[in-house]
Amino acid sequence: MGRLASLVSTEDERTRHRGKSRTGTPWRIRIGTFAATAALVSAGIVLGAGPASAAPVAIKLTSASCPTEIVQGQVSGCVTELQNLLNAHGAGLAVDGQFGSSTLYAVREYQAATAIAVDGRVGPQTKSKLYATAGTAPAAINLQSSSCPANVVQGDKGGCVTELQRLLGHFGYMVDVDGDFGAGTASAVRGFQASHGLTADGQVGANTKRALYDDDESPSTSLDLRSSSCPENIVEGQSGGCVATLQSLLNGKGQSVDVDGSFGPQTLTAVKAFQSSNGLTADGQVGPNTKAALYANIGGGGGSGAPAPINLTSSSCPAEIVRGQRSGCVTELQSLLNHHGADLAVDGDFGPLTDSAVRDFQAEKGLSVDGHVGTNTKAALYGAVTPPSSPPPGGGYAKILDVAQAEVGTVEGSARANSYGAAVGLSLSTSDYAWCATFVSWVAKQTGATSYRNSYVSGWVKQARAGNYHLSVTTSPQPGDIVAFDWDGGSDFTGGNEHIGIVRTVSGASFTTVEGNTGNPNGSNDGVYVKSRTTNSSYDVVFIRVR
Predict the structure, then answer these.
(1) 205-260: per-residue pLDDT in tens?
(2) CA distance 283 to 51
(3) Helix and strand numbers, DSSP H then E, in the chain
(4) Contact call for residues 436 and 515 (beta carbons, < 8 A)
(5) Nearest by Cα to 334 from 524, 530, 532
(6) pTM (predicted TM-score)
(7) Minimal CA–CA distance to 10: which of 500, 533, 513?
(8) Which residue of 142, 423, 443, 524 is 20 to 30 Å from 384, comparing CA positions?
(9) Which stretch of DSSP H or E encloses residue 245?
(10) Which of 544, 480, 484, 532 is nearest to 508 (CA)?
């Protein structure tokens, strides 16, 4: 994968281009894509765990013995039948007759893939569709494993194709998950390639595989709502990357919705509120006028995200970076200015606010205040970037959150972000590996709260469960705790789809975090940002106390 697979393959929420193994249950979906009902962790046990039991005898879903709607929490032969049918579509569930969080995952993803309203409730429409499309999809196989060919192409069949189709569904492409690479799958692959700047040849090689796994904690937000990849009107009930982009844009305009790729009541309310505040018809349908308003005043004129950061002292940047320029050099400049106290949108666009921040910085450092970022200003910007290796700032547990929050806004690939790797002995660009646990390790080093360092999420969980390094599992989270997520569920943190951050606030089952290697709420480059999470969701959570 070219992304340090041997070192960080069990990292962050992004199966991304990050080099993670993705060998977990087929049909798994990303963080927050569908809310499931789960309880807070109890001592040493994370959400979603449950004892195994013999499955009741299967009962046909359309029989009078099954309820009109089969929902989470039920245990019966109807659920056994449901699990068998979902497995025929590649879900890979344990057939136990218990409608738990994993079954809810599979139901909702099946509904999304077959254009049924995504509510997780198995009613008449879902039942009918399950029987009408019953197939025998081979179990999914990670595309980047040695079991899959270097190029997956039209005509291929098997688990590698199942995985390909499943991933395409995550990006909003409606394809049958049947393990058969036919014309429909080929068309979806070419569409995906075109929307991601890849050669649209329909062959799934190394670059396409990497992009397919570039999925952050939510469906792709790289789609432009105004492109042909998205419906003309995005409406309630739809799901996928276009909805995720919509949610991200809404948040950038002052709304507060989960970026989960599912257009539900919360998103509908936010759309109507946005439309009302912008003088649009508040019908909840995201058509051309609403899309135009969502993209208005976004840096770069299209909401496509900031250019990748470029070191200011490299030959790729001009001797003087000045107002009016737009480039990765400006992305890096804005990230550095934010580290020195500015509060800029990191969009790679050198506008009046960036100019003002440059002048303020120059005045503070005793430099010529001209707004031009030349040799002296560049040197001063980098002067405090590399964190001290010894002694650490100290403060222990009490300072964990303070140190983490001070980094919010740091952009992936910037000098500041790259400096975090020193905590675990890495000198790589954060654009080249999954660095969420590296960020936590860096915070731990800065505070001296624990001597533990690891770029693997699984390592942090293992040591907490063992009570080593002043780490322990807690069921009463509070600000400054560490929180680990297992997007694949199962509480084992071995599926290659994990993430980790630092608790910022707690309110019942909801909490906010400071996380590295996570998506920018405004849809630009990844970095260190505040996220809203909940324990009542379709992923497992472990809270780690540092004392």
Answers:
(1) 988 987 776 543 334 444 567 776 678 889 987 776 678 778 777 866 767 777 66
(2) 46
(3) 17, 6
(4) yes
(5) 524
(6) 0.41
(7) 500
(8) 524
(9) helix 241-252
(10) 532
